[in-house]
Amino acid sequence: MQSVTEVGKTAKDYELLNTKQKGLFKRFARYYSPYKRTFFLDMLCSFILAVSGLLYPILSRYTLNTFIPGGMLKELLLACAGLLGVYFLRAFMKYSINYYGHVMGVHMQADMRSDLFAHLEKLPYSFYDNNETGQLMTRMTNDLFDVAELAHHGPENIFITSFMTVGAFAYLCTINWKLALIIFAFLPLLFIIAWTSRKQMTKAFQKSREEIGGINATLENSIAGIRVTKAYANGKHEQERFEKNNQGYVKARGKAYKAMGTFQANMSFVSELYNVVVLVAGGLFCLYDSDNFDYADLVAFMISINLFISPIQTLIAFFEQLQDGITGFKRFTAIMDVPVEEDAEDARVLENPKGNLEFKNVTFAYSEKRDILSGISFEIPAGKTYAFVGASGGGKTTICHLIPKFYKIKGGEILIDGINIDKITNDSLRRNIGIVQQDVFLFTGTFKENIAYGKIGATQEEIEDAAKRANIHDYIISLPDGYDTQIGERGIKLSGGQKQRLSIARVFLKNPSILILDEATSALDNTTEALIQHSLFELCKGRTTLIVAHRLSTIRSADKIFVINKGEIKEQGTHEELMSKDGLYKSLYESQFTDVENIDLSTNVSIS
Q: What pTM, to 2 d.p., does this model score?
């Protein structure tokens, strides 16, 4: 689990911490392992493609020097037929490279996406407190697409360009080694330009990645809240927010393409400079060294120089993809390097707990600046119901989040049946804790699927029994498709009360020993709340229950009530005991039952 200093870190923070990211190539190469055969065939096709590319200039020179001067028509036609056959072979090689190579890249992308999703599932609560969904989706989709393209095109481009460059240089040396060395002398200039441009390009493309992530985050947030936007007629405001991010992306991408344009222009100039060098130097050799270098050699050299230039041009075209792929993989590994939740080495499975819960001098902080909880101590006997009340921000919900180990405590102990929760495996601990919150999250799907989420693999009978106990069965069977009815995205087709009862059914099916009700009914109207309270009452029977509530009328029957203020327990006792103390609880309780009939709402002034 994460330390306090890690709670506030975002994915970008880990990216900055991992700028060097040792072993990046090794980690990337690991994803080729399951596809060694396809990779080998892809490289073999690339090799054949590279070798066959050398045949045309070789055959052209031989034709100019031998077949044409010797009037060898038959040999010339056979050579041309052979060359046509080679071109058919090259076409098949290109097909194989593009098809099988891309399929391999897609499989590697799928493997990375699976690893990333599995890793995201294991990350602590704090990671999602500080990272936007849209940004994570960008890394899951856009970034990994670019990585897949690099996985396919990278090795073959590097292999082909390297082989073609070396092969072309070797062949040029057979024509005239002096002229070949002159051409080779210009290579350092090419490498210097590539090296100096790389850092600027990397930075620019990284920025554009961040901006597209911002667009996705804004888009995801705006679409999810479209009904609120419409209710407040704030479409123009949302458009402005989106355009701000959109223009930021345009600006960042513009800088990236400016760096790319500068790089390409410089590289292209140097590449095309070779043609001038060959023409000038070759012409001089023809004039002053005609015994060793004639016009046929010059023509062959001018044709062959394209073999030397072509790989360089391929590298130029590939460089943007290389930058995108490297940047995407770095962003991928930045997430993969975020520490996951881990069980202690001596952690054990929690089986059939009674539900006795104890906090011993627990201290907690979301950051190093301020403690949210300071020395909290209490014990809840198995099967009892304890309530937590107090002003917002006092630490009530934080207490609830610490029990399932959503966050790591700074000091003290939390015990279940006398066992420190740090010595319990996360999964077994959370399987025995049920949570009903104010903000119910329902998955896109059916009633059946959402209830069954409380117990994967539950039978239809078990699902219906849970729905009956949550008082939502009758409503479900009244629908045309019954339990197979789609509830819409996040349950948009349901009322607040129906969503809450569905979440309660889910917990009934889970059947936990410890139950946490965190403002479970605060968003409901009084009538709906009264109906839900009956379901909650049934749910609480026989379970250790913690209730966080602002409506104090809902917790009057609790076995004990804790008043939390600024991270400390200020008062505790039953409703009657706390009312008799004439303290903070009584003040809170009476403020909720003030006679509002004598308040003039239009002026907010008492007229009594």
A: 0.73
